[in-house]
Design goal:
- The complex is a heterodimer of chains A (about 160) and B (about 160).
- Chain A is an all-alpha fold and about 160 residues long.
- Chain A is about 60% helix and about 0% strand.
- In chain A, helix 2 runs parallel beside helix 5, helix 2 packs across helix 7 and helix 5 packs across helix 7.
- Chain A is globular.
- In chain A, about 35% of the residues are buried.
- Chain B is an all-alpha fold.
- In chain B, about 60% of the residues lie in helices and about 0% in strands.
- In chain B, helix 2 runs antiparallel to helix 3, helix 2 runs parallel beside helix 5 and helix 2 crosses helix 7.
- The longest helix of chain B has 21 residues.
- Chain B is globular and about 45 Å long.
- The termini of chain B are far apart.
- The chains are: A mainly alpha (about 160), B mainly alpha (about 160).
Chain lengths: ~160, ~160
């Protein structure tokens, strides 16, 4: 796959705006990097963004997450004990918001998620989900190609 | 409907972040306001955001849009001659990107949309679609209520 963009300068202005959102999330919120990567991976799985999945898998591993955990995120409900209650709540919120056109945000879901996130933290998590949904809507239609990466050395194929 | 938020200021910062995108679109792109409203409304129809539909209907009318055109927007393909080729391309792009999890942007679609938008314009239009998809994902889950409004006298006529 090669990019559909012929002139990289054409996307600079738009790209810059997206980076502002990322900077806010990184510097002005309480969202932990491991949680952030899981959210970004789950939304990218739903939307089908190869570039985003490769990038955030690599970043999650760099931040210390594990290949085994990342490998089953798309079926996380079947292995919920691998994820903290806060991560589970974030994954539910991610799935429902990403599928907002077909999913309803029930009072039950809202209350469940609010047990793990303050209103402010939930607002910030929402912006994180909006941002990755945005990147997905750039990388998929413009055909941004994914990059190969290696598993970081400290997580080499060493079994317990 | 009342907001689910106990503290309405909880979303103030994230709204501020999204507003920066809107300011960029308004001041630093060639996306026409009327076309922008159609895009915002079509995405909000797909995502089911009452607050956003109300807001952009009112703004579109203020910018000189016609009620009859807005009334059939969700079936625009059945009345394609009511919309310019550029508006049609924008609506195709809006629907494809809003429904990105179930659609694929084919080479054919990409090429047809590019006939109406330069690469820069298409990137900027994409950002506008991202922004309204974002507003939808704030206002639906936090249950932002919609407000009634009167059909405004278009500003061009009023002045």
């Amino acid at each position: 796959m090669t990019s559909r963009i012929k002139d990289e300068n054409a996307i600079k202005g738009m790209y810059q705006q997206m980076l502002h959102l990322e900077n806010y999330i990184r510097h002005e919120t309480n969202i932990e990097p491991p949680l952030k990567h899981i959210v970004k991976l789950r939304a990218s799985q739903i939307n089908g963004c190869a570039y985003c999945m490769a990038m955030h898998t690599e970043e999650a591993l760099k931040d210390g997450d594990r290949v085994d955990r990342l490998s089953l995120i798309s079926a996380w409900e079947e292995s919920a004990d691998w994820f903290t209650p806060r991560e589970q709540a974030a994954l539910m919120w991610t799935e429902t918001l990403t599928r907002i056109s077909t999913d309803k945000v029930s009072d039950e879901l809202y209350n469940r998620v609010r047990e793990e996130f303050s209103e402010k933290d939930l607002a910030d998590l929402t912006l994180l989900i909006i941002t990755i949904n945005g990147w997905n809507r750039i990388a998929i239609p413009f055909h941004t190609p994914p990059s190969h990466f290696e598993v970081p050395i400290e997580q080499g194929a060493v079994a317990d | 409907m009342t907001s689910r938020l106990e503290d309405l200021a909880a979303t103030r910062d994230i709204a501020q972040q999204l507003r920066k995108l809107e300011i960029y679109i308004r001041n630093e792109t060639t996306i026409e306001p009327k076309l922008n409203h159609l895009v915002k409304m079509r995405a909000s129809q797909i995502n089911g955001c009452a607050h956003c539909l109300m807001l952009h209907a009112e703004e579109a009318l203020k910018d000189g849009e016609q009620v009859d055109r807005l009334s059939l927007l969700s079936a625009w393909q059945e009345a394609a001659d009511w919309f310019t080729p550029r508006e049609q391309a924008a609506l195709v792009w809006t629907e494809a990107l809003t429904n990105i999890s179930s659609t694929h942007v084919s080479d054919e679609m990409y090429a047809s949309v590019r006939e109406q938008f330069s690469e820069k314009e298409l990137a900027d239009l994409t950002l506008s679609i991202i922004a309204i998809n974002g507003w939808n994902r704030i206002n639906v889950p936090f249950a932002t209520p919609a407000h009634h409004f009167e059909v405004p006298v278009p500003e061009a006529v009023a002045s």
